[in-house]
Specification:
The complex is a heterodimer of chains A (about 425) and B (about 300). Chain A folds into two domains: about 290 residues, no CATH class; about 110 residues, Periplasmic binding protein-like II (D-Maltodextrin-Binding Protein, domain 2, 3-Layer(aba) Sandwich). Chain A contains 17 helices and six strands. In chain A, a hairpin with a 5-residue loop joins strand 5 and strand 6. In chain A, helix 7 crosses helix 9 and helix 7 packs antiparallel against helix 13. Chain B folds into two domains: about 220 residues, 3-Layer(aba) Sandwich (Rossmann fold); about 70 residues, Alpha-Beta Plaits (2-Layer Sandwich), CATH 3.30.70. In chain B, strand 7, helix 5 and strand 8 form a beta-alpha-beta unit. The chains are: A mainly alpha (about 425), B alpha/beta (about 300). Chains A and B meet through helix 1 and helix 8 of A and strand 6 and helix 2 of B.
């Protein structure tokens, strides 16, 4: 067996046999599912609470306007002075007291209404109340101006623009959401993967240094092989962990939803509802739409590029992690070197989630999808929106060229660093090492 | 004698720091070669260059007359001074891994490991984790792994550190046995008593320069001072000293003896022989002790380093 595969095998077996690795592999998805279950359970619990709001409407205009909803109940109390009503509301368990005084002009309603409550009321409750009042006031004003409000309602037209690309693909506003979800998941996955397993590589380099086995090893194998073997072995272990996580998560969420009848996808469907906003499509229609959008995505392109960018980005960063591991004596010394690694990663995520969403093909998005340290994340998020193939390939070439340069650079630091004990590595020291 | 390893004009700089300055070392086949020098002299750098861990800035290493090739790693066994094992790995598994990295097949490695484990009486450790072993126990494993692939050149950097006297002896005997079986051994240390016991050739490196090398015996001859330790029982002990000092350089000394005698260190001039001294002494009284003062490796080491510091 050649050296590289021997090293990969050892790294892999060593990782997956490690007790804390095994524990994390099986515990993390359980914790994740538990948290999701808890959150959805709590939000359902929240939804079950019915808030009662007392309404003291001295004007008498709005009395019939307030309609009870699922979570909100209105109790009309008339003929009571405000002072008493306030006192009563405070001592009761009710959510609050809405006070509408009598006014001369309809316009005055915009500023005289007061809501009394123990704590600040939630935004959504206030929104609901204000909407109701505004609608009524508007209607009153229309009536005052001699316009039939019902007529206006009847004449309203809803416009739904059909979106179609020049190539003839039908898309919708929903499509953007689906694309965003795809890109976001891909980018975020890469980000997590780099941080978790990059750290693991770094620790494994430090371990070889502190256990002093390193010199024995590199008298048998070239440091570059050791470095690559470490990166590949750890990545394979990481992939294994990821696959196990996904399997356990699917299993557990199925189990949890069937056992407790809790919909763990509730949070997601809420977001989808947001996307729907004005459209009145039923959920059946929504599902077919989502599937149509997924089908419309450049799936082959996406999957292939995901693999390439994921690998490239991961290798690029993990070689840097390995170099850091070689430069220090113990984990506490790694802090000063972590910032320059994390900065571009986080920048990539920010650019991805703010700029790409805003304008997938704008200058900023384009520039960051070429810079190798941000391109894996940013480009992955851009691709669902359709990126010309030459741009993707150019970005890949830059990425892999940088990877080769970083490995060379990391190997140099690694080669010198692994034999340096007790010296506290500084950036100046490391630059000196490059000349050795 | 044929040389197994020759390092020719090797120079290595670390930035502004010169670690090795144009060093030439020749290691004869079948010898135990002591590479000596104070801390930081450059021994480890030279050893790392031989192991191709670091590359020299200039100079060449020849193994068996050929320029050193990357594959020659398989012919070298190296026990570094900074050594260790994976703490959480099992002993047997780890030894197998390291042996396979040296090019042995799994079957071969297993066979030889069981031979060595039996030989050193450590068969029971195969499934133990390294972190359960004491330092000395771990060193034994490291020793086995170093010699397992039967290299023709063995390099030991401070091999006895961490061993108790019993195990140090055991390892010493194993090293000498390997030498007898045909291996050449480079031995880096600053423990002079082991140099005395084991090395037949030495090279002394001081502040990046080689200051001394050759056969230990030749070096000792060159460093001898023509001095002898004597013990003498004489009736008129009071004026003996002044009598001797008329003819020879004399200084007091002491050694263990069962007699109650006069003990002196006497230095004779180049033209006198030891016989002249013996004849003269026996004329003075009963000679109970007579031995040549041979410079120890320690003396040579200290003297050479001191002289070089003055220069």
């Amino acid at each position: 067996m050649n050296h590289l595969s021997l090293i990969i095998k050892r790294e892999y077996l060593n990782k997956i046999r490690n007790k804390s690795f095994i524990i994390m592999t099986f515990l993390s998805p359980i914790i994740m599912v538990a948290i999701i279950t808890l959150v959805s359970y709590l939000s359902q619990l929240n939804n079950d609470i019915v808030n009662t709001i007392e309404v003291l409407d001295e004007s008498g205009v709005f009395t019939s306007q307030f309609e009870d909803s699922e979570n909100l109940k209105f109790k009309i109390i008339n003929g009571v002075p405000l002072k008493d009503a306030k006192f009563a509301a405070e001592s009761s368990n009710n959510y609050g007291l809405l006070y509408i005084p009598k006014t001369e002009n309809i316009e005055d309603y915009s500023s005289v209404i007061t809501f009394y409550s123990e704590d600040s009321p939630s935004m959504s409750v206030m929104q609901a109340i204000e909407n109701t009042i505004e609608e009524k006031v508007n209607r009153l004003k229309l009536k005052e101006a001699g316009i039939d409000a019902n007529k206006i309602e009847e004449l309203k037209v809803t416009v739904n623009t059909n979106l179609e690309t020049f190539a003839g693909e039908k898309t919708s506003k929903l499509g953007s959401g689906v694309k965003l979800a795809f890109g976001g998941i891909a980018g975020y996955l890469l980000f997590m993967f780099i941080i978790i397993y990059g750290n693991m590589i770094m620790r494994s380099v430090i371990e070889e240094k502190t256990s002093r086995i390193i010199e024995v090893l590199i008298s048998s194998v070239k440091p570059i092989k050791l470095l690559l073997g470490k990166i590949f072995g750890t990545s394979l272990a990481g992939l294994t962990q990821f696959v196990v996580w996904i399997i356990i998560m699917i299993f557990l969420s199925t189990l949890a939803s069937s056992l407790f009848g809790i919909d763990t996808t509730a949070t997601q469907s809420q977001q989808q509802e947001l996307l729907l906003q004005n459209s009145d499509k039923g959920s059946q229609q929504l599902i077919t739409d989502v599937f149509r959008e997924i089908n419309n995505l450049p799936l082959t392109n996406l999957v292939i590029m995901f693999l390439f960018f994921f690998t490239g980005g991961y290798l690029l960063y993990s070689s840097l992690y390995a170099a850091i591991g070689a430069a220090v004596d113990n984990e506490t010394d790694t802090q000063q070197f972590m910032i320059p690694i994390l900065m571009p990663l986080i920048l990539g995520i920010y650019v991805g989630f703010f700029t790409v969403i805003e304008n997938p093909h704008g200058t900023v998005s384009q520039v960051f999808s070429y810079i190798p340290f941000t391109s894996p994340v940013v480009m992955l998020m851009r691709i669902p929106f359709g990126v010309p193939l030459w741009q993707q390939i150019l970005s890949l070439i830059i990425l892999f060229a940088t990877f080769i340069a970083t490995v060379w650079f990391a190997a140099k630091i690694y080669r010198v660093g692994i034999l340096m004990y007790g010296k506290k590595a500084s950036y100046r020291e490391i630059i000196k090492w490059l000349k050795y | 004698m044929e040389n197994l390893l020759v390092a020719k004009n090797v120079t290595k700089n670390y930035g502004d720091f010169k670690a090795l300055n144009n060093i030439t070392v020749e290691v004869p086949k079948g010898s135990v070669f002591g590479l000596l020098g104070p801390n930081g002299a450059g021994k480890t750098t030279l050893i790392r260059i031989i192991n191709q861990i670091t590359m020299p800035d200039s100079g060449t290493i020849y193994l068996d007359g050929q320029t050193l090739q990357p594959n020659d790693i398989m012919h070298i066994g190296y026990l570094p001074e900074e050594r260790g094992l994976y703490k959480s790995m099992k002993v047997g598994e780890q030894a197998l891994y390291l042996a396979q990295l040296k090019g042995l097949s799994k079957v071969q490695a297993k066979e030889r490991l069981s031979y060595w484990f039996k030989r050193l009486g450590i068969e029971g450790w195969w499934n133990k984790k390294v972190q359960e072993l004491s330092k000395g126990m771990a060193q034994k494993i490291q020793f086995v792994v170093t010699v397992l692939h039967q290299p023709k050149l063995l390099i030991f950097d401070e091999p006895f550190s961490g061993f108790d006297p019993i195990n140090a002896n055991l390892i010493k005997d194993e090293i000498l046995r390997l030498r007898d079986e045909g291996a050449t051994i480079i031995f880096s240390t600053h423990r002079m008593e082991s140099v005395e016991e084991m090395c037949d050739h030495i090279a002394l490196i001081h502040e990046s320069n080689k200051v001394l090398d050759g056969k230990l015996i030749d070096i000792k001859r060159a460093y001898k001072s023509n001095s002898y330790e004597i013990g003498l029982i004489a009736s008129n002990s009071d004026n003996i000293k002044s009598l001797i000092s008329e003819k020879f350089e004399i200084s007091p000394t002491s050694f263990k003896s069962i007699h109650n005698e006069l003990q002196y260190k006497i230095k004779i001039s180049e033209k006198d022989s030891a016989n002249d001294l013996v004849n003269y002494l026996t004329s003075l009284g009963q000679l109970t002790h007579f031995s040549e003062v041979i410079p120890s490796a320690n003396d040579i080491f200290i003297e050479t380093v001191k002289n070089n510091n003055i220069l």
